[in-house]
């Protein structure tokens, strides 16, 4: 437990973190990777370049500081991060490295304002916070290993099938090389793929949502190829999976993880909303609901156009077989032959005419898309406890002015 003086000092730094948090975390990552380049085998390089990871860490540090006297308030955030840490293979021995470099970054950025008393207080606080993460992650490692078909670390899987869904999206059906059973999972969870493409100095790890209901003898992921443009480079892992990995090849996977999961204990209607490749966890949830419940379901998918609509025929077939499933399609651009339900974007006015307001809402997609959905649901007065969403990559915030969901 922290003494009252340490808590007082930590809380006094909260305004400073609001101003300098991202500068501190950027400095932290730069210094840590310089001192420990081997950690580049774990962290997502693209998130570092785009600034997502420093922002996410700054938010987490801010939340921890603001709640240092009652860390149980941020346990949901801790569990979400811990799921990703477990899936990446973060271990207790990594935490002293993080602590040393984080404290060094605080001193570097704040200079003389980071007194010895402040650094000592943060050292104590970090020790408490690290212990919470280590404890939660230890339980997760043990749980994933003890599940029937579960394992710790990474396990080799064969690409049994590779199915092109659209010009830029491909599904990979993965079966264990050892022939043993695989762990079940909660609809909405993800696995982590570890690869080392030719010419790359470090291994690369990426989380991919499982895109089918649990219970099969395989895992399926559906990956959109990130080609890049003038503002961002092509995705190293997605390009490698699309262009290099073939049926019969081996991929290393961590056991399923993630806290964005379907609540299967309710009987209320469910509305699933996806944008682009954000449909992957939605398909897992949809198939599970159809197999194991009698709940009314509305599924809305938004895509740039008909050509970019992933698994269109699959969802249409499900809707034909299950009258309690109502499906709607929104295309950003459409032609008279596309037969979509709406052109343009999803908005509150249209959404309120097709969904039961007492629904549980789940959605996933690009961040601007999710911001638009989040604000539409609030405009419709949907209770916060009925709103569930998943970020691809480091967690961010949707609680800002909705931007154009382009």
UniProtKB/TrEMBL annotation:
<feature type="domain" description="FAD-binding FR-type">
    <location>
        <begin position="152"/>
        <end position="263"/>
    </location>
</feature>
<dbReference type="InterPro" id="IPR009050">
    <property type="entry name" value="Globin-like_sf"/>
</dbReference>
<keyword id="KW-0521">NADP</keyword>
<dbReference type="InterPro" id="IPR000971">
    <property type="entry name" value="Globin"/>
</dbReference>
<keyword id="KW-0408">Iron</keyword>
<comment type="similarity">
    <text>In the C-terminal section; belongs to the flavoprotein pyridine nucleotide cytochrome reductase family.</text>
</comment>
<comment type="similarity">
    <text>Belongs to the globin family. Two-domain flavohemoproteins subfamily.</text>
</comment>
<dbReference type="InterPro" id="IPR017927">
    <property type="entry name" value="FAD-bd_FR_type"/>
</dbReference>
<dbReference type="InterPro" id="IPR001433">
    <property type="entry name" value="OxRdtase_FAD/NAD-bd"/>
</dbReference>
<dbReference type="InterPro" id="IPR017938">
    <property type="entry name" value="Riboflavin_synthase-like_b-brl"/>
</dbReference>
<feature type="site" description="Influences the redox potential of the prosthetic heme and FAD groups">
    <location>
        <position position="390"/>
    </location>
</feature>
<dbReference type="InterPro" id="IPR012292">
    <property type="entry name" value="Globin/Proto"/>
</dbReference>
<feature type="active site" description="Charge relay system">
    <location>
        <position position="95"/>
    </location>
</feature>
<keyword id="KW-0274">FAD</keyword>
<keyword id="KW-0560">Oxidoreductase</keyword>
<keyword id="KW-0520">NAD</keyword>
<dbReference type="InterPro" id="IPR023950">
    <property type="entry name" value="Hmp"/>
</dbReference>
<dbReference type="GO" id="GO:0008941">
    <property type="term" value="F:nitric oxide dioxygenase NAD(P)H activity"/>
</dbReference>
<dbReference type="GO" id="GO:0009636">
    <property type="term" value="P:response to toxic substance"/>
</dbReference>
<dbReference type="Pfam" id="PF00042">
    <property type="entry name" value="Globin"/>
</dbReference>
<keyword id="KW-0479">Metal-binding</keyword>
<feature type="binding site">
    <location>
        <position position="190"/>
    </location>
    <ligand>
        <name>FAD</name>
    </ligand>
</feature>
<comment type="function">
    <text>Is involved in NO detoxification in an aerobic process, termed nitric oxide dioxygenase (NOD) reaction that utilizes O(2) and NAD(P)H to convert NO to nitrate, which protects the bacterium from various noxious nitrogen compounds. Therefore, plays a central role in the inducible response to nitrosative stress.</text>
</comment>
<dbReference type="Pfam" id="PF00970">
    <property type="entry name" value="FAD_binding_6"/>
</dbReference>
<feature type="active site" description="Charge relay system">
    <location>
        <position position="137"/>
    </location>
</feature>
<keyword id="KW-0813">Transport</keyword>
<dbReference type="GO" id="GO:0071949">
    <property type="term" value="F:FAD binding"/>
</dbReference>
<dbReference type="GO" id="GO:0020037">
    <property type="term" value="F:heme binding"/>
</dbReference>
<feature type="binding site">
    <location>
        <begin position="391"/>
        <end position="394"/>
    </location>
    <ligand>
        <name>FAD</name>
    </ligand>
</feature>
<keyword id="KW-0561">Oxygen transport</keyword>
<feature type="binding site">
    <location>
        <begin position="276"/>
        <end position="281"/>
    </location>
    <ligand>
        <name>NADP(+)</name>
    </ligand>
</feature>
<dbReference type="InterPro" id="IPR001709">
    <property type="entry name" value="Flavoprot_Pyr_Nucl_cyt_Rdtase"/>
</dbReference>
<feature type="binding site" description="proximal binding residue">
    <location>
        <position position="85"/>
    </location>
    <ligand>
        <name>heme b</name>
    </ligand>
</feature>
<dbReference type="GO" id="GO:0046210">
    <property type="term" value="P:nitric oxide catabolic process"/>
</dbReference>
<dbReference type="InterPro" id="IPR008333">
    <property type="entry name" value="Cbr1-like_FAD-bd_dom"/>
</dbReference>
<protein>
    <recommendedName>
        <fullName>Flavohemoprotein</fullName>
        <ecNumber>1.14.12.17</ecNumber>
    </recommendedName>
</protein>
<dbReference type="GO" id="GO:0005344">
    <property type="term" value="F:oxygen carrier activity"/>
</dbReference>
<feature type="site" description="Involved in heme-bound ligand stabilization and O-O bond activation">
    <location>
        <position position="29"/>
    </location>
</feature>
<dbReference type="InterPro" id="IPR039261">
    <property type="entry name" value="FNR_nucleotide-bd"/>
</dbReference>
<dbReference type="GO" id="GO:0046872">
    <property type="term" value="F:metal ion binding"/>
</dbReference>
<feature type="region of interest" description="Reductase">
    <location>
        <begin position="149"/>
        <end position="406"/>
    </location>
</feature>
<keyword id="KW-0349">Heme</keyword>
């Amino acid at each position: 437990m922290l003494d009252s003086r340490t808590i007082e000092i930590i809380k006094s730094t909260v305004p400073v973190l609001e101003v300098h948090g991202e500068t501190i975390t950027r400095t932290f990552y730069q210094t840590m990777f310089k001192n420990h380049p081997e950690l580049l085998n774990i962290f997502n390089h693209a998130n570092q370049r785009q600034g997502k990871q420093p922002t996410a860490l700054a938010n987490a540090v801010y939340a921890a500081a603001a709640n240092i006297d009652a860390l149980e308030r941020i346990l949901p955030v801790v569990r979400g991060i811990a799921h990703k840490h477990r899936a990446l293979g973060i271990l207790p021995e990594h935490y002293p490295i993080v602590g040393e470099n984080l404290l060094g970054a605080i001193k570097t950025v704040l200079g003389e304002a980071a007194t010895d008393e402040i650094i000592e207080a943060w050292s104590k606080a970090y020790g408490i916070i690290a212990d919470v993460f280590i404890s939660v992650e230890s339980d997760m490692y043990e749980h994933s290993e003890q599940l029937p078909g579960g394992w710790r670390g990474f396990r080799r899987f064969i690409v049994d099938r590779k199915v092109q869904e659209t010009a830029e999206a491909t599904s990979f059906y993965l079966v264990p090389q050892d022939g043993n059973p695989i762990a079940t999972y909660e609809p909405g969870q993800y696995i982590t793929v570890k690869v080392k493409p030719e010419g790359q100095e470090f291994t690369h790890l990426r989380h991919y949502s499982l895109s089918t209901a649990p219970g099969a003898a395989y895992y399926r992921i559906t990956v959109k190829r990130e080609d890049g443009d003038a503002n961002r480079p092509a995705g190293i892992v997605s390009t490698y999976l699309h262009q290099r990995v073939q049926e019969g090849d081996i991929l290393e996977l961590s056991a399923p993880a993630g806290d964005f999961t379907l609540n299967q204990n309710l009987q209320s209607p469910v509305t699933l909303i996806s944008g682009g490749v954000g449909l992957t966890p939605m398909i897992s949830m949809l198939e599970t609901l159809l197999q194991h419940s009698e709940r009314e379901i509305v599924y809305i998918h938004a895509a740039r156009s008909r050509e970019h609509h992933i698994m269109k025929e699959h969802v249409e077939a499900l809707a034909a077989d299950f009258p309690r499933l109502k499906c709607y399609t929104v295309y950003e651009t459409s032609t008279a032959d596309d037969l979509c339900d709406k052109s343009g974007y999803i908005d509150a006015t249209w959404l309120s005419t097709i969904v039961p307001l007492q629904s549980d809402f789940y959605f996933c997609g690009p961040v601007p898309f999710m911001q638009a959905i989040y604000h539409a649901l609030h405009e419709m007065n949907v209770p916060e406890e009925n709103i569930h969403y998943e970020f691809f990559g480091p967690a961010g915030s949707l609680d800002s002015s909705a931007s154009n969901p382009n």
